[in-house]
Write a structure and sequence with these properties.
7 helices, alpha/beta, Glutaredoxin, six-stranded mixed β-sheet, about 20% strand, single chain, about 160 residues
Length: about 160
């Protein structure tokens, strides 16, 4: 009987959405440490599921995943969704939309503290995209919705 209960508990925990999706929470410090001085070029998009222009732009990032497949380029979607929506609502949204890039949730809530760590010129509005090629010293901040061709041309320069 105990074996059956343990097995049932294991199955329930294994198929819990958080364990399956694993959307990690990152602070600005953690995010910037991850992308610093890497041989990988990072395309980092700050977005939220409640932001119309952000949602409209998301397919561009799916396409960028395909476009740079097999190359040292990584797309990160940094969700600025509200704390009460993390992780359950965000994970359901990401699953329903079948987003290809890695999605992380941005845990910082004080713009006066996190904006200077990301990009001092950022007004705080979304969507914005940050391109960082740490080993090349390349850093571009795009404070507008982007297209696949625009981002690809900036990376391929």
């Amino acid at each position: 009987m105990k074996c059956w209960l343990l097995a049932l508990l294991f199955v329930c925990v294994s198929f819990h959405p958080i364990a399956a999706k694993g959307i990690s929470a990152y602070s600005a410090d953690q995010l910037m440490a991850r992308v610093a001085k890497s041989d990988t070029t990072y395309i980092i998009n700050f977005w939220a599921s409640w932001c119309g222009p952000c949602v409209k732009e998301l397919p561009q990032f799916d396409e960028l995943v395909y476009r740079f497949s097999g190359k040292p380029v990584k797309v990160l979607l940094v969700s600025m969704d509200f704390e009460e929506d993390y992780p359950e609502k965000l994970e359901k949204y990401v699953s329903r939309k079948k987003l290809l890039p890695e999605v992380i949730w941005f845990s910082d809530t004080k713009p006066d503290e996190f904006i200077p760590k990301i990009e001092p010129s950022w007004s705080g509005a979304i969507p914005v995209t940050l391109i960082i090629a740490g080993s090349k010293g390349k850093r571009l901040f795009l404070a507008h919705p982007v297209t696949v061709d625009e981002v690809a041309s900036l990376i391929e320069k």
